[in-house]
Design goal:
- By secondary structure, the protein is an alpha/beta fold.
- It folds into two domains: 58-177, Response regulator (Rossmann fold, 3-Layer(aba) Sandwich), CATH 3.40.50.2300; 180-316 and 350-374, Response regulator (Rossmann fold).
- The chain is built from ten helices and twelve strands.
- It has a six-stranded parallel β-sheet, sandwiched between helices.
- Helix 4 links the parallel strand 3 (128-132) and strand 4 (151-155).
- The termini are far apart.
Length: 388
């Protein structure tokens, strides 16, 4: 028994020694495996395409919420580089600025069609109808009475209350008018100061149209004003194309060119062309002869590039801006009711020939423009040609 106890004790000591001398066991931390991240599945909402808005056309003009503007030209083309074109540009601007939803023009080829052309827009429900030129004065007045809910703008159309127009002014008709005599006066003064031969010419459409006559006689008055001031004597030769009907007087560039060439042959060294394509023919002819020319209505430096090198200036009555303004007023419900809206008068920059204009001449032109605007200078040109 003692022997067995001794053996057990020895074995116990042996086990303790082996354990104490053996290598240490390294503790291995548990490996944590993160769960796989599964992105959430996003289900896009059902895409509903927007409803397409149909394009506005002329057939929509009768609708109350569609603002349509129509233009009826005087006899001639809408791209006449002068009067008709300027009016159409003003209407195009009204489309760009958001006033008009739809615009269209009708080119008049015969004066007997004025009323029919206006009625085309009136019957279609156009909100504004623009008629271009003095010749449409009476047809426009009649149409305004026939279509009282349509607003009319008569470019170059002056009316007053009289036996023929007892209802004037009409609430739906405004005449866009200008002091053409002032514009003519300015370019006539310039021509007199610039002419070396002291002979200048003017080639115009018919003088039966008051604005045309005022241009021509203003031109003559401006030259006379500077002659008196400077002690010079300028011969002014004005020729009006009154020997033909209204269907041709503004659309005859050949006559315009021939008339200008005749004046140049007789010594004129500056030519003023006033009257649509007829006047354009005169301006082009002058430039071809290397003679200074004067345009009309708009700055024709932009519309007659073939004449730019000799275009001294243009007698201005800017049409696009005031016409655009009137259309805006119509859209806003603020259409003028006094019957008339007067645009500005003036003259265009000298452009390519600016270096030929002496500083004292330019200073005088600025003084003249100021004097005409404030009334201290008068042209003394009557509104219409006196009866003979």
């Amino acid at each position: 028994m003692k022997r067995i106890s001794t053996i057990v004790a020895v074995l116990s000591v042996f086990v303790m020694l082996v354990t104490a001398c053996g290598p240490a066991v390294t503790a291995v931390p548990p490996v944590v495996v993160p769960p796989t991240a599964v992105p959430p599945v996003v289900v896009p909402p059902t895409q509903v395409p927007p409803t397409a808005v149909p394009a506005i056309t002329g057939s929509d003009c009768s609708k109350a919420n569609v603002f349509c503007v129509g233009v009826v030209t005087d006899v001639g083309k809408v791209d006449d580089k002068s009067f008709n074109q300027s009016a159409w540009e003003g209407v195009q601007n009204s489309k760009k600025d958001g006033s008009a939803d739809w615009i269209q023009y009708i080119e008049t080829t015969d004066s007997k069609d004025y009323a029919k052309n206006i009625a085309t827009f009136g019957d279609a429900g156009y909100k504004v109808i623009v008629t271009v030129g003095f010749n449409l004065t009476e047809p426009t007045y009649a149409a305004a009475q026939l279509y009282p809910k349509t607003l009319f703008i008569g470019v170059d159309q002056f009316l007053s209350k009289d036996a023929t127009h007892p209802d004037w002014p009409l609430a739906n008709l405004v005449g866009l008018v200008y002091n053409e005599d002032q514009s003519g006066f300015l370019v006539g003064a310039l021509a007199a100061m610039m002419s070396k031969t002291h002979s200048i010419g003017g080639v115009f459409g018919t003088d039966a149209v008051p604005p045309v006559w005022r241009y021509g006689e203003g031109y003559r008055a401006g030259a006379a004003y500077e002659d008196t001031k400077n002690g010079t004597k300028t011969t002014v030769t004005n020729v009006y194309h009154s020997d033909v009907g209204f269907d041709k007087t503004f659309t005859d560039p050949t006559w315009g060119a021939d008339t200008a060439n005749s004046m140049i042959d007789k010594g004129a060294d500056i030519i003023f062309g006033g009257g649509g394509k007829t006047g354009n023919g005169a301006v082009d002819a002058a430039a071809q002869r290397k003679v200074l020319a004067i345009g009309v209505d708009t700055d024709q430096y932009a519309t007659l590039p073939e004449a730019d090198a000799y275009l001294l200036t243009s007698a201005m009555k800017p049409i696009p801006q005031p016409l655009e303004n009137l259309i805006k007023l119509a859209k806003a419900g603020q259409f003028p009711t006094n019957g008339l809206y007067t645009g500005a008068a003036g003259y265009a920059p000298y452009h390519d020939v600016a270096s030929q204009v002496p500083a004292n001449v330019d200073a005088e032109m600025q003084a003249l423009a100021k004097g005409l605007a404030d009334g201290s200078i008068k042209t003394n040109v009557p509104p219409v040609k006196p009866a003979q």
